[in-house]
Amino acid sequence: MDPCPFCRIIEGSAPAVWVEREEHAVAFAPLPDSSLAPGHTLVVPVEHTRDLLSAGPVALAATTALAQRVARAMRGALGATGTVLLQASGADAGQSVAHLHVHVVPCWPDDGTTHWPSPPSAHRFDGDPHAALAEMFE
Fold it and tell me: Where is the HIT domain (predicted)?
């Protein structure tokens, strides 16, 4: 099995354009051909964890906190007027690297793009999906 590409970046055996490195999370530029906007940044926990569902509280908190700081930096350094956080967990959601990561994408009024899913899912659920979710917490 190939080693995790994000783990290779974190350990220094693969190159990266670093934005920030912290004890529990790091931020770096995506590959140039996958960048969605100037300054698009990936935020990744240092600890290898496959996705949102398997992340421990430290990795999740550090990743989320760093994503917030990256978004603030985008506003200050790039003049971004908004940001979009994109996170996919599982192949059916579009996750392509099996290491939890959050895309922080800066936005401006003249973007001419949206990062909101369209069209909405065609999947149908019998019953009230929010009631089914609420039952999981009882």
Answer: 5-114
